[in-house]
Amino acid sequence: MNLQVEMKLNKDQAIKAIFQGTDLQECIHQAGVLLSHDGVCGNCKKTEFELSSRKSDGNLFTEFTCKSCGFRRRFGTYKDKSGNFLKEWEPPYSKAQEPTKRPPQRKVAPQQDNMLDSEDVF
Ligand SMILES: [Zn+2]
Asked: Which residues are in the CB-under-5-Å shell of ion ligand 1?
C-alpha cells in the first residue's frame, strides 16, 4: 500500500511524498522521517524551513534547515537500510563543523543504538 504525506516547508514550498510498504505500519516506518518533523524549529520555534541535500565524499547529507536561525535536522539511515529517521536539532554549520572534517566520534543516545549516522552509509 501507499501512504501519502504532505508537508509544508515554508510559505512558498510544500512537498508531497508517497511511501510504499506492505502494510500501514511499514508505510509509517518509511514516512517516519517526515512525520517526526513537527513543523517547529527546535531552537527559535519558527515554522519556515528548507529541505536540502548535498553530497560530500560520496556521502549524501539531507537536512531540514530553519530559515530563521539556521538550525538543522539531519536525516539518518537505519542500519538495516529500511528507511530514514530524523535526528535532533543541531546548530548551524561552522567551518570547524563540516562533516568531512569532523573527528569520527558519534553521539548516540541509548534508544538510537540501532541507528547509524548517514555519513557512515555508503
Ligand atoms: Zn530556528
From this structure: 41, 43-44, 46, 66, 68-69, 71
